[in-house]
Q: What sequence folds into this?
């Protein structure tokens, strides 16, 4: 993935105790959420892959040391980018999730060890894992019915992508009909890419025609596939490698390697460098062999992907948030260069965070010209002693803005001065402060503007978030329109969006008379707004922009509470030590940080006023039930004691796949307790509350596995 990032974190968790770790964990979570918003929703990444990956490792290291910090709203939750409004949308029957990353030999060895631990496999038990090049292209899904290609879609946000069927049909390597007898429904997934030679030739043609050239083969491939005119795509030399699948009426093999061989048999192109390995040593040996061949492959790769070969084991391993437990990507090292830091510009985000951005002398790194980089926060600037005028070392690991590693001190100008971070918001003039954690006394690493209700930067950014593709997804109400409407006083809060048409009818100055508008465009905008008056509950929650409530947390809350009224009622009373607070914290993966954020949001009178107005215009709809036919769908389940036929993690993952809510402790709202040998206080509490308790064997019978 090419994503967003943050402060240069150390790899090993500091031994500073849970309180300090919680503060750092919350800070990282908020910072990553801001980076994800920049990359996914705004198509404007502000940091490099390398830095994002470093943040993610730090975040995961903290959670590994302090399991109480684990929440679903982590760096691993986000997937891809939202589909463009230019294309029809395709809902993926099976989500197109992305991979976790590793960067060292030790992490590869740990990946293999984790798989064994989860499955309960001893060291001597055989475990086959495939290894294949990680193609640096654009993910694409091909749907075949009775062997015929009927639909093609980009990954989008993992749940919904863009319909690019007409464009894909122009790619010569992709068959319109599969050979032999494939499954009746067969959704094949892979990567669309462009070779180095074809990329160079395309850029020559672009330059000769006076058109913009592409930065790299991946951008060229993505831009070519996402043309509105398939005739343009047909002129672009695109290629495809198949390596995965989604919905399938049947599977032609029971292993990853067997599936890829079936792809080839059906006439799909597959990568010839995929091999079967049987140990971490084998994986690392193939990684090094691929790395040595990288420059001669003729197409871009950015690592090697490892996947557990057995599909039965893949099914047992399941997924963690955005990533499968049974696969990971071993990334290649980043590239570096030096350039001059001309200025530091402060940007204000929707949460009031002041983010310093480096303005650089443009420099080419790995074939890509870069001129901006995030500097993260004032502590990072001070720690690295980065000054305006410095020659700085930058690093990139993808086609995004790079990471500033630090200054080249011997080239520092003689009269330079340490950078002083502003204590006043550059947008509204309010004080900008670093919040102090009441429990730890530690200052937040992010400085925030205190003018939440008067700061235009925050108000506008919150409105952009509300209307964004992953939230209300209002077509025709993009960033520029929101900025314009806000500054003209037409849309100041979310409810104003839904009263815009009624107010326009009463106004003497109609929207259709504004520059850039007409009767048709205004009619389409009002229709798009009306179409979003009934949105899924998870999107509604996410759109509110509550701190620490990302897409995954919004889904978890929507599934648990079922309605916004139920969530609101509990959150209103979620003060410390309350039963309501315990209910939120007891949702699998949610902890004190999320519970506190909800209590703070719903405890703010201004927010409640805006919500009341919004709910007069909008009706949140229940989420689609997950595995609704399952006998445990919608039930709250607690596992306790030793499980003998599966690991605890495997049992939890299995229950969630079947639509159950897995809780960490027993409460009056628990529906079922699965108790193994050695069950203690949880079993006693279940008996006290009269909650149904069953054995592991009974559980397997209940879900049809026994």
A:
């Amino acid at each position: 993935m090419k994503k967003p990032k943050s402060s240069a974190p150390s790899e090993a968790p500091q031994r500073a105790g849970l309180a300090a770790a919680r503060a750092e964990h919350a800070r990282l979570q908020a910072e990553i959420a801001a980076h994800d918003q920049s990359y996914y929703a705004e198509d404007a990444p502000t940091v490099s892959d390398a830095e994002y990956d470093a943040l993610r490792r730090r975040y995961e290291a903290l959670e590994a040391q302090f399991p109480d910090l684990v929440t679903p709203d982590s760096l691993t939750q986000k997937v891809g980018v939202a589909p463009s409004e230019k294309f029809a949308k395709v809902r993926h029957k099976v989500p197109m999730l992305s991979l976790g990353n590793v960067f060292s030999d030790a992490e590869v060895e740990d990946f293999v060890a984790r798989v064994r631990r989860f499955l309960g496999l001893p060291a001597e038990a055989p475990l086959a894992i495939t290894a294949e090049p990680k193609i640096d292209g654009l993910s694409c899904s091909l749907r075949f019915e009775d062997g015929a290609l009927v639909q093609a879609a980009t990954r989008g946000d993992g749940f919904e992508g863009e319909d690019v069927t007409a464009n894909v049909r122009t790619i010569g390597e992709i068959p319109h009909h599969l050979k032999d007898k494939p499954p009746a429904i067969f959704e094949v997934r892979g990567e669309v890419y462009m070779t180095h030679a074809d990329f160079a030739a395309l850029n020559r043609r672009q330059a000769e025609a006076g058109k913009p050239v592409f930065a790299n083969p991946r951008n060229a491939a993505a831009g070519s596939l996402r043309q509105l005119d398939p005739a343009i795509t047909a002129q672009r030399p695109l290629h495809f490698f198949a390596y995965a699948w989604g919905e399938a009426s049947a599977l032609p093999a029971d292993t990853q390697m067997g599936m890829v061989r079936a792809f080839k048999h059906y006439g799909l192109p597959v990568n010839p460098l995929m091999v079967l390995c049987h140990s971490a040593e084998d994986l690392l040996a193939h990684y090094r062999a691929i790395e040595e061949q990288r420059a001669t492959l003729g197409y871009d790769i950015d690592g090697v992907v490892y996947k557990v070969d057995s599909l039965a084991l893949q099914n047992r391993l399941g997924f963690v948030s955005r990533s499968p437990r049974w696969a990971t990507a071993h990334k290649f090292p980043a590239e570096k260069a030096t350039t001059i830091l001309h200025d530091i510009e402060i940007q204000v985000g929707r949460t009031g965070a002041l983010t310093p951005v480096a303005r650089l002398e443009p420099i080419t790194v790995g074939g890509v010209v870069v001129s901006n980089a995030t500097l993260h926060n004032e502590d990072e600037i001070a720690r690295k002693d980065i000054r305006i005028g410095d020659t700085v070392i930058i690093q990139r690991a993808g086609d995004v803005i790079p990471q500033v590693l630090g200054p080249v001190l011997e080239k520092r100008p003689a009269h330079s001065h340490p950078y002083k971070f502003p204590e006043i918001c550059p947008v509204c003039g309010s004080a900008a402060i670093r919040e102090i954690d009441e429990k730890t006394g530690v200052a937040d690493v992010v400085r925030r503007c205190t003018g939440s209700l008067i700061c235009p930067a925050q108000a506008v950014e919150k409105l952009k978030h509300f209307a964004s593709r992953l939230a209300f997804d209002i077509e025709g109400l993009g960033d520029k329109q929101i900025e314009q409407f806000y500054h003209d006083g037409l849309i100041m809060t979310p409810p104003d969006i839904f009263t815009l048409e009624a107010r326009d009818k009463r106004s003497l100055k109609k929207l259709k008379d504004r520059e850039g508008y007409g009767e048709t465009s205004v009619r389409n905008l009002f229709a798009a707004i009306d179409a979003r008056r009934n949105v899924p509950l998870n999107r509604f929650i996410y759109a509110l922009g509550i701190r620490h409530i990302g897409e995954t947390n919004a889904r978890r809350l929507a599934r648990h509470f079922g309605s916004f009224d139920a969530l609101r009622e509990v959150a209103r009373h979620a003060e410390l030590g309350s039963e309501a607070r315990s209910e939120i914290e007891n949702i699998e993966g949610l902890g004190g940080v999320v519970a506190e954020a909800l209590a703070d949001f719903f405890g703010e009178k201004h927010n409640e006023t805006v919500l009341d107005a919004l709910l007069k215009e909008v009706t949140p709809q229940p989420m689609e039930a997950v595995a609704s036919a399952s006998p445990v769908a919608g039930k709250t389940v607690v596992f306790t004691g030793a499980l003998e036929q599966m690991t605890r993690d495997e049992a939890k993952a299995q229950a969630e796949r079947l639509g159950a809510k897995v809780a960490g402790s027993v409460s009056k709202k628990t529906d079922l307790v699965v108790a193994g040998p050695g069950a203690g206080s949880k079993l006693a509490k279940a008996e006290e509350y009269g909650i149904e308790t069953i054995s592991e064997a009974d559980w397997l019978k209940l879900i049809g596995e026994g």
Q: What stands out?
A: The chain has a mean pLDDT of 84.
